[in-house]
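Researcher: Go.
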Amino acid sequence: QVQLVESGGGLVQPGGSLRLSCAASGSIRSIYDMGWYRQAPGKQRELVAAIPRGGSTNYADYVKGRFTISRDNAKNTGYLQMNSLKPEDTAVYYCNGYIWEQSGRQGLYWGQGTQVTVSS
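Model: Structure:
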């Protein structure tokens, strides 16, 4: 069974940095698009950044210049480097990936989320 597991969240002061990781495991043939989303209390889940397997990245306007998405295809892992964090970045961050399994099945998988809290 394919799983995505996020890590790297925590409490950080405004202006600080965190690096989130998203590790995919299971019977994976290939991962196409990977993305990071976030959901703050009382708000809808929103796209933060996305990265295809081989192409240009895409960022939400409110993180451009501060966040960087990347991936290591050999490790089936995605990353989100977050710099210059603001209190409004506080949310649960989720990763997803469109995955082609060894069985031939393809589908979108989500991680369980990791909490990021930006506060002094």
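Model: DSSP finds no helices and eleven strands in the chain.
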